[in-house]
């Protein structure tokens, strides 16, 4: 593992630890807990318990509703006389109910006759409601418990605390914590002592499994329960547990509120409150069937958060990309699946928000780090290659760095060498003015470099007064040979322009600058060359050496631009390569033809063939042709080649012909 990998691992580990601490701290913050509770509401409403399963054969709970039809049929104002409740208890017993729960608090005496009638009807199968209220003042907090009248308790009735605790958002989600809750006492009254004893206090604070919105439970009106034989099907109440309380048929909107009505998990979707009598029935069924869930403790949540953060950290060990986003979404989906499985299978609510945030909090900063580093790398690529590549190519590399293959690859390139002629003499003449020499060289190298960049070339290096460039790397260039030759012609033109400027500035004392250009095409290795700590993007291969030899040979051949045979073959049809000489190069066996180009304009094939044939004659010792070439550039080039060959192979008969050729 190298230093960069160790640094990346250390940063990831530090991020994971910090995220775990932050997420666990958030999970203790009340607004965050309320957000998690909303997730519980959603899960709890996805698959509520079936009322058929809750019926448990002939058992189950039925709600006796003090509702609008009952007020209409009975015709009395609330509160109704207690002897009426006594009649209800008697009628329900006769109908076969196992227990009756009156979700009504009889704390104050009414008429003696009515109270005596109710007391006579009470027994151990009847549960009366008690209530607790917390009175808080600036100086004290007082818990007040309101109990039924003593004579009702003395008559054998059970008493259960009907109060419930709401979460901070006023939603009922938790089982009451008292040992003598109304629901637990109701189960005892029904003979289900095991359920009541085992779960009454132990279930305190657990999460209620809601049965559904208002009126989910089987409900009959109070007036119907007073005379079941007249209003209800036979046996409908047999073996049931009856819970009596106010339950209006017109559900109460959550925003208006109402007495003894509560927001539950279903309120968010329905917007309606659930009557307290149905809440008591729900709590009783949660006790009977063990439906309630536990909220995962801090150790379990911490384990989930740590696991999510570690998985995200493992994902972030690789450089960020689109796959990182997909992996992050996959991890969040996994967290949701685990949370749902824990809730529905284990009855443990493992909030998914903190683990999901752990995934996001780990991936986001690490991905931001990678994006920042990538942008920095792109800026570095842009800065580095901006000295060597055309701006358009640099922009392409910055958008798609994959186009730049580092480390070396084989590919066909066209290589160009350009060197200033007689630079040693020029430097000697300016030995006392190094600043002037530097300025002059920069003035020359600037347009020569621009000629390369304008045609998509890559400047490999500056070697004193020499420029080395190549085409077809790092980006593909199908016409690399043509572009290289065009760059060579542009270099020659740029030198002439600079000479004109110098003459205009310095007069006859201005130095006359000339350059030689050698171009060759061949297969090379291109990539990062150098040591492990310092390297350059460069090329190696025999084709490079040959291009350098061509640049040197251009002086001997008396042409400023010299092309290898491979380059000449590549530009056929686009430019007009003309035969110049056949040369032998150090390190190579035999001789090779070399070519030049005098213009970017194509020539007629017949003209080129005639010129090459004439040059072949010169190379084989023939006398110069007397026929002139219509193109002045061809005539001048032919005269130059003829003069060169005459100098190499003197002949008494060549002087006149040479003169004629120069004139032609």
Automatic annotation (TrEMBL):
<feature type="transmembrane region" description="Helical">
    <location>
        <begin position="12"/>
        <end position="32"/>
    </location>
</feature>
<dbReference type="InterPro" id="IPR050697">
    <property type="entry name" value="Adenylyl/Guanylyl_Cyclase_3/4"/>
</dbReference>
<feature type="domain" description="Guanylate cyclase">
    <location>
        <begin position="414"/>
        <end position="551"/>
    </location>
</feature>
<feature type="transmembrane region" description="Helical">
    <location>
        <begin position="292"/>
        <end position="313"/>
    </location>
</feature>
<dbReference type="InterPro" id="IPR007890">
    <property type="entry name" value="CHASE2"/>
</dbReference>
<keyword id="KW-1133">Transmembrane helix</keyword>
<dbReference type="GO" id="GO:0006171">
    <property type="term" value="P:cAMP biosynthetic process"/>
</dbReference>
<feature type="transmembrane region" description="Helical">
    <location>
        <begin position="320"/>
        <end position="343"/>
    </location>
</feature>
<dbReference type="Pfam" id="PF00211">
    <property type="entry name" value="Guanylate_cyc"/>
</dbReference>
<dbReference type="InterPro" id="IPR001054">
    <property type="entry name" value="A/G_cyclase"/>
</dbReference>
<dbReference type="GO" id="GO:0004016">
    <property type="term" value="F:adenylate cyclase activity"/>
</dbReference>
<dbReference type="GO" id="GO:0035556">
    <property type="term" value="P:intracellular signal transduction"/>
</dbReference>
<dbReference type="Pfam" id="PF05226">
    <property type="entry name" value="CHASE2"/>
</dbReference>
<keyword id="KW-0472">Membrane</keyword>
<dbReference type="InterPro" id="IPR029787">
    <property type="entry name" value="Nucleotide_cyclase"/>
</dbReference>
<protein>
    <submittedName>
        <fullName>CHASE2 domain-containing protein</fullName>
    </submittedName>
</protein>
<keyword id="KW-0812">Transmembrane</keyword>
